[in-house]
Amino acid sequence: MRLIAISDIHGCNAQLQRLLEKVKAQPEELLFLGDYVDSGPDSAKVLQRIAALERQGAAALLGNHDALFLDWLKGLEDIRYYCDVGGLNTINSFLSLLDIPPVDAFTICYNSRKEAEIRTLIQREFAAEIQFLATRPLYEKRDQFLFVHAGIDPEKGLLHTSKEQFLNIRESFIHRYQGEEFVVFGHTRTRRLHDTDHIYYGSNRVIGIDGGCAYGGQLNALIIHDECDELYVRRDEKWHTWHEQGADHERIIGRWRMNEVHVPSTSSKSLQVP
Ligand SMILES: [Mn+2]
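Above: query sequence and manganese (II) ion SMILES. Below: predicted holo structure tokens.
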């Protein structure tokens, strides 16, 4: 079975739909690494799509933005901060599913009665989606791969990583992780790690996949079968494939193969998209 990881969709429902059409995955092959909401235009639809796939067998983790949205719904997050990090589009994506016109930032930020009204409405009308989000796990293990939103504590390891670290850790994990398992993560845009939106294969067995789709980048799918492939859609919705043959990639896949009982063929083809 293949494993297909996708992260940081951030309301980019059109790109997600195209990526899924091209990947042609079975639901149980899919792992979503969180941050379904905020910034992009269609957070509510993304959430409904992910919840449906999860019911069919996909894995779906919690991201820090998903946690922020839940906190705002519980009255634990300041609306001005939440709007600053893309939350207004999330709120309006839910209102639009109810055929309610969008609320502007000024109204929701400075009219607490209106804010409470909208919060109550979303809680009532989207109880199933909110319950889905509130029950997302923080990590998923498959064979020698660990899937997380942001990373794990590089010193203490998986079992002693706090929720805060699972959702928010960056450089200290990415550069100092030295564990045996491959860790697939989102959250930190790969452009910050290697100057492109493609998947980042660190020589220390970390694989970053956040292509920054909601910020003008691309939505990546890491496809793990007998080797790692990448399929992606850029925000302009044009399709490309890309198959890294660089040194880090070869090294990391080499290590993975050494640990595998089944040694895959080296001649397997990457996915080709016309
Ligand atoms: Mn994140």
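Residues 112-125 form the longest helix (14 residues).
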